[in-house]
Structures are given as structure tokens and as C-alpha cells.
């Protein structure tokens, strides 16, 4: 977390800015897209670089990429704001919002402190990411409540059975992301999504009407079909689409068809 920013924006002034922002319905946009296309709704990631792959796109223009994604049928966008590992920024998030992009925006940041939630909202976020691997249950509960009060959606990310069981035991969770990438080894294994949705866990998810997002390592229509068959209603995709000369065409290639509205 950037303590320099935290010093400049004490919580009581930041809260006012966050509360005055009007948000967009992130979960509603995912549901509407799934109904419209019959395919997992796309959360398209504005991603310049990653720890596992280095720089993905030279001449990175976040607004242009966001507009191309929206035009090509993305339901929502994920904007990396972490500087150190992904070369992202809050300026990118703010610029995309100010450019008039209508897709709801997920602020992709390593959130460990409630201050960051207010800051994300003040910069135009409609949803934030909470990573179960780094947050105790109590923080997930507390942060989810703050988000609800602010009108923000929370995407709670899990990677294994233990994290999934922890998150399923928390009341009020509406959106769970299953990351196919192991955050320590960076290895991607799509069968992770399938495994975590089998049996009792899948039943609880259906009962609670939770939307599951498949995350990472998707490149082809077969990959999309695989995670859809496993039970996901949305996918979070970065590398395979952002690397294309035309990221919009990257989306049609990923789904094997034009999904634009
Ligand atoms: O992308 C990485 O290399 C990475 C490494 C370590 C921790 C997290 C990482 N990525 C975060 C993500 O969740 C992905 O950016 C997102 O799921 C999109 O993945 P992809 O389609 O494989 O770019």
C-alpha cells in the first residue's frame, strides 16, 4: 500500500469523496451480459505487465484499450492499479472513468486496508478485489460491509478448497473468483475451476445464487467452453486479449464469435 498517498488523503476527507461518487452495477452488468449472449460475461483486464510475463503491451494506452473492450462486448473491465508488479495506476482507472466508458470498473489492487476501498471508490471503482489468501475472514467480512454501504461490489478471490470453504461460510458474498493461477508459483491450471465447483461446493454456490468468475490463463473458445461447463457465469481475462494489436478483435477470437452488443 502506498503510505505516501495515505498521508496525503486522511480517511475523513477521503470518505466524503468516496461517498459522493455514483457507481455502476457491476453484478447487474455481468448478469445482463450472460443473459444476452448465453456465454460467460467478460471482465476484460486493462493490463500492461505482469510478474509472470513481463511487459505484455508496449505503447500501452489504457483508455483506448478500455474503449475497444467495451465496443467488442465486455460486460465489465478490470483495471490494474498496482504499480510495482503490473505497472498499473490509479490515474489509469480515473482516466478510463472520465473518458466516458460505461462498463463498470473493477479496481485490481492488493487491498489490505479499508482506506484503500475509499480511495478506489474516489477514483471511480465500481468493484474491488479481496484476495482470500492474504485476508483473514474478519477482514473480508468487514470490508464487504464497507463496500455494500458504498455501493461497491466485491470480487472475493480464492485458489484452493480451503479458501473456497472459508469464503462460502461468510454471509453476503455475491461474487467469487476462482484464480487458476497459483499466486506463488504463477503456474496456471484450468482444472482448478472445475475442481472447486464440484460436489457440495457447487451446490452451496447454486443455493446462495453466487456468481463465479473463472480467472486467468484463458486463450481460446475451448478454454471458455471448459470453464462454462464447470459452472462459471463470468471470466476475467487479461493477457490473451490485451496482447492483440486490436484488443477488440482479441475478444471475438477468445469467444470464437462476435459478442458485441
Ligand atoms: O498475471 C500474473 O502474472 C499474476 C502473477 C501473480 C499474481 C497475480 C497475477 N495476476 C492477477 C490476475 O488475477 C490476472 O491478471 C487475471 O486473472 C487475468 O489473467 P490472464 O488472463 O492470465 O492475464
TrEMBL record:
Molecular function terms in GO for this entry? indole-3-glycerol-phosphate synthase activity; phosphoribosylanthranilate isomerase activity
The reply to whether Lyase figures as a keyword in the UniProt entry is yes
Any one biological process term the GO annotation gives: L-tryptophan biosynthetic process
Q: In which pathway does it act?
A: Amino-acid biosynthesis; L-tryptophan biosynthesis; L-tryptophan from chorismate: step 4/5
Any keyword Amino-acid biosynthesis? Answer: yes
Q: Pfam families from the xrefs?
A: IGPS (PF00218)
Kindly list any coiled-coil regions of this protein.
none
The record ties this protein, via SUPFAM superfamilies, to: Ribulose-phoshate binding barrel
EC number in record: 4.1.1.48
Q: Which CDD domains does this entry report, sorted A to Z?
A: IGPS (cd00331)
Question: Which residues belong to any copy of the Indole-3-glycerol phosphate synthase domain?
Answer: 6-251
What PROSITE patterns is this protein classified in? IGPS
- Identify the keywords attached in UniProt to this record, alphabetized: Amino-acid biosynthesis, Aromatic amino acid biosynthesis, Decarboxylase, Lyase, Tryptophan biosynthesis
Q: Give the catalysed reaction(s), semicolon-separated.
A: 1-(2-carboxyphenylamino)-1-deoxy-D-ribulose 5-phosphate + H(+) = (1S,2R)-1-C-(indol-3-yl)glycerol 3-phosphate + CO2 + H2O
Task: Output this protein's name.
Answer: indole-3-glycerol-phosphate synthase
